[in-house]
Amino acid sequence: MRGRDLLSIAELSPDEMGLILRTALSLKRDGGGEDLLRGKTLALLFEKPSLRTRVSFDVAMAELGGHAIYLSQGEVGLGQRESVADVSRVLSRYVDVIAARTYSHETLLGLARHADVPVINALSDEEHPCQAMADLLTVLERFGALRGVRLAFIGDGFNVAASLAEGCALTGVNFAMASPDGYSLPEPTQRLISELATANGGTVEFFETPAEAVRGADVVYTDVWASMGQEDSYAARKEAFAGFAVTGELMSLAKPGAIFMHDLPAHRGEEVMEDVIEGPQSVVFDQAENRLHAQKAILALTTSDHEL
Question: Could you tell me the domains of the chain?
Answer without folding.
Answer: 9-127+291-303 (3.40.50.1370), 131-288 (3.40.50.1370)
